[in-house]
Amino acid sequence: MRAQAVRVEEAVGMVLSHDITKIVRGEFKGPAFKKGHVIAAEDVPELLKLGKEQIYVLELDKDDVHEDEAGVRLGRAVAGPGVTCSPPRESRVNLFAARTGLLKIDVAALEAINSLPDVILSTLPNNTPVTEGDMLAGTKVIPLVVKEEVVKAVEEICALRGGVIRVEPYQALDVGIIVTGGEVYNGRIKDTFGPVLKEKVESFGSRVLEIRYAPDDARFIARLIGETIAAGSQMVLVSGGMSVDPDDVTPRGIRLSGARVEKYGAPVLPGAMFLLAYRDGVPVIGMPACGMYFRTTILDLVLPRLLAGERLTSRDIVALAHGGLCRSCPECRYPRCSFGLSGSGPRVTANGVT
Length: 354
Fold this sequence. Notes:
Blueprint: E1 2-7, E2 15-16, E3 20-24, E4 28-33, H1 43-49, E5 54-59, E6 64-66, H2 67-78, E7 83-85, E8 93-97, E9 101-105, H3 107-114, E10 119-123, E11 129-130, E12 135-141, E13 145-147, H4 148-161, E14 165-168, E15 174-180, H5 182-185, H6 193-202, E16 207-214, H7 218-230, E17 235-239, H8 250-256, E18 260-264, E19 275-279, E20 282-287, H9 290-293, H10 298-307, H11 314-319, E21 348-349, E22 352-353
Parallel strand pairs: 15-16, 15-17, 17-20
Antiparallel strand pairs: 1-5, 2-5, 3-4, 6-13, 7-8, 8-12, 9-11, 9-14, 10-12, 18-19, 19-20, 21-22
Helix pairs in contact: 2-4, 7-8
């Protein structure tokens, strides 16, 4: 790339290296042509009217890529399934959700791209629930032109990964809910937990097959879990009885059902007494009482990922610790906040980053 002063008539196809201002008395003052504009034949008469018989332009080398072309190529490279790109504006290309679902970011690829010279890619946090039309990311190049080898390096990183940014659609599952507690089972109080869980499940497009009730009896709870799965439930939520009190037997009931516990206890507040287990591939969730009176809890972090088809492990639950503290804001703005959105990148262990 070379900067030089040339006659306007000879500048067609070259890149303007500075803004050219237009002033109309009492009406307008601003750039008629912006830095980085590729001069076209039809621009020549207007430039002459602005008193520009010669201008400073950038002449591109064969291996130079103009910022707008580079921006388009970067956007196309990083966009995976469920993602669309905007047209470039001063090389910036925005990426948007083409469908409602769970945003997935290849964090290692994201860091590899941003380690290259002259290009940037900025995203929302991994595992953010998004709706169609949400902005997910922005990418651009820093200078007016960038070397072809840099753009190709981004494209190669993305080709190996199948895109860096994607939106996984939620699966429509049949879900069973079991509400525990003798006070509800015996009709002494009205169930207020089941409807809360039902509303949350249905907000993701899944269906609640039934809400069943159990006393504080581990074997009774275990039997209901088995019956609920046998009736077709692809996920089971068991609410209440998750603390360490002697009559809180839900964790024992989940184990007696034959489900293998992946993690009991989570580094998330609210949601510390959360339990995740699997029985024959069916997630069985022990949901503590916080889910009844807090609007946003660990369930809001885990449920979208399970409905997007992930099989979560103990390690995934542990990773929620970073960002796992809810601020309990008077007006909840989740997921447009820090809650739960920092625990999904590269993990640092005693032996380094994994």
